[in-house]
Amino acid sequence: MNKQVLLEVNQLKKHFHLGKDSTLKAVDGISFQVNKGETFGIVGESGCGKSTAGRTIIGLYDSTDGEVIFNGKNVHNLSEKERFDFHKNMQMIFQDPYASLNPRSTVSEIIAEPMEVHGLYSNKQERQERIYQLLEDVGLNRDHANRYPHEFSGGQRQRIGIARALALDPEFIICDEPISALDVSVQAQVVNLLRRLQKEKGLTYLFIAHDLSMVKQISTRIAVMYLGHIVELTSSRELYKNPLHPYTQALLSAIPIPDPDVEDKRERILLKGELPSPINPLSGCVFRTRWKHVPKSSRNGRRLRKAIMLRAICTIKKILATMTIHQWRQPDKKVSRYEYC
């Protein structure tokens, strides 16, 4: 059975002009699809462009180039009315539960604001019942409606942010590191809440985080970003079982194992070399300065000559010298494909 594609991102770019001759390439040509009902994870270290990608997809940033297709329409070419409807169907949960809530508004006013903007309810009683229902859906109670954000813990504030995102009954929610500012015990509670809501309401998530162990628990497929590029994309199970890209391997090796004997014996992959600047990115492979096995001739930025090789013989030593090391994986096929730079 063919899966319905809800979101399609094609060669999306977001560049910030810093001066006359300086451009920061935060997102530099990423492409992926998100199927209806799944959770698509984006992981990477701080500064790799994952949050910028999410904000560009929802329209908080104007894209420099590329397309964002949502329900068959290009998000960045919508009319005013179409954009109004688009924001009803796509919402965002922000990273900082302290900064994303208005401290001068009560919880009831915070949740009611998007409903008032879109004119969903004709009277105050109907709207208030909807607010109570949303609070109960995220694990809070009705008494919390008249309180202010400073009266809540970090986990409770994030639940309020989730309730606000659900107020318009969206199809798609971008979760921009919703658990990074929370305690470990609270992180699991929020992730379980998101999974329950997805099952009950048929939601689709774009889940952005830098904690791979947590992303594994919630994501169907995962894309790994490095310096504005997607270097590997595959199913969650396949990524953890057999990572191909050396950057992915290094990230996974940093996840602690709760077994002292295993943790002491396993080898940690430490990346060396200089991190390239996104203001003046390298030609060719952007990861080559941190990988000791990179072929010397890839430094000249030549384009890929052979796109697909059998995975069984696709070892680093057998890759042609003109190839770059951006890897694009198709989980349903026994091949690995190397992306053009």
Structural write-up:
This protein has 10 helices and 13 strands. The protein folds into 2 domains: 228 residues, Rossmann fold (3-Layer(aba) Sandwich), CATH 3.40.50; 94 residues, no CATH class. It is globular and about 65 Å long. The C terminus is likely disordered. Strand 9 and strand 10 form a beta hairpin. It is α/β, with parallel strands linked by helices and 341 residues long.
List the helices and strands and how they pair.
Layout: E1 5-17, E2 23-35, E3 39-43, H1 50-58, E4 65-70, E5 73-74, H2 80-89, E6 90-93, H3 107-117, H4 124-137, H5 154-166, E7 172-176, H6 184-201, E8 204-209, H7 212-218, E9 221-226, E10 229-235, H8 236-241, H9 246-253, H10 260-265, E11 308-310, E12 327-329, E13 335-338
Parallel strand pairs: 3-8, 3-9, 6-7, 7-8
Antiparallel strand pairs: 1-2, 1-4, 4-5, 9-10, 11-13, 12-13
Helix pairs in contact: 3-4, 3-5, 4-5
Short description:
The protein has 341 residues and is an alpha/beta fold. The protein is built from 10 helices and 13 strands.
Number of domains: 2
Shape label: globular
What's the CATH architecture of the largest domain?
Answer: 3-Layer(aba) Sandwich
CATH topology of the largest domain: Rossmann fold
What number is the mean pLDDT? Answer: 81
> Low-confidence parts, pLDDT < 50 over ≥5 residues?
298-341
Pairing-aware structural class of the strands and helices? alpha/beta
H and E order = EEEHEEHEHHHEHEHEEHHHEEE
Query: Count the strands?
Result: 13
Main sheet: strand order: 6-7-8-3-9-10
Helix residue percentage? 25-40%
Question: What about the largest sheet?
Answer: 6 strands, mixed
Q: What is the number of helical segments per DSSP (H or I, 4+ residues)?
A: 10
Report the β-strand fraction as a percent range: 15-25%
Highest-level CATH class of the largest domain: Alpha Beta
CATH homologous superfamily (4th level) name of the largest domain: P-loop containing nucleotide triphosphate hydrolases
Gyration radius, in Å: 22 Å
Q: What distance lies between the first and last C-alpha atoms, to the nearest angstrom?
A: 33 Å
